[in-house]
Design a protein that fits this description.
alpha+beta, 10 strands
């Protein structure tokens, strides 16, 4: 992903991006279930179940999804992120792909007070582009303000595919095959 045309790694002087810290922590519905990977690996039904094997397979499913996300350049499960910026340093803010919603755009003034911006009034969201963009509304710019010394701007957004998205009926099927092959290679080696 990128922000304003710059790679995420280039954000260091301006801010950072991280998964939103929530309570409880984010829980991802993986594109492959434990039962599906066991069937793919031709593993016998175990009675009682082998919890350590199940934990290992679940970890491998998550790891394979993470590898696929890096290779695809998009989130394959729904995630919420926070972008923390020292100020609005670029006109368009690029989010992770595929952008689903922008949940919050807020800035903090030097006196510590917060101002929350409103979609449609202060900014627009374009989920048609890949990656999606957040921009000020037509013929305006981001607000000018005396910023809090660090992390004055917070942009919270949700990206990724839901298990019911049409994506999984087309391109997603190929990604699942690759994930299964990767888990199989890890498991058998």
């Amino acid at each position: 992903g990128a922000l304003g045309g710059l790679a995420w790694g280039s954000l260091a002087p301006y801010g950072s991006m991280s998964l939103t810290e929530t309570s409880p922590a984010q829980d991802f519905t993986e594109p492959i279930t434990l039962a599906e990977i066991k069937e793919y690996l031709n593993l016998p039904d175990r009675s009682p179940t082998d919890d350590s094997e199940d934990d290992l397979l679940n970890a491998m499913i998550s790891a394979a999804r993470e590898v696929a996300e890096v290779l695809q350049g998009r989130d394959l499960v729904r995630k919420q992120y926070d972008i923390s910026l020292d100020y609005f340093w670029t006109y368009q803010i690029q989010c992770r792909d595929p952008l689903v919603t922008v949940d919050l755009v807020r800035y903090r003034n030097s006196d510590g007070s917060y101002t929350t911006l409103t979609e449609g009034t202060h900014y627009i969201v374009d989920t048609s582009k890949h990656p999606g963009l957040i921009s000020p509304v037509y013929n305006t710019t981001w607000p000018t303000f005396t910023a809090w010394p660090s992390s004055a701007v917070l942009v919270r957004f949700t990206s990724g595919y839901a298990a019911t998205d049409a994506f999984w009926n087309d391109a997603g099927k190929r990604i699942i095959v690759g994930m299964k092959l990767l888990v199989s290679t890890w498991y058998n080696n």
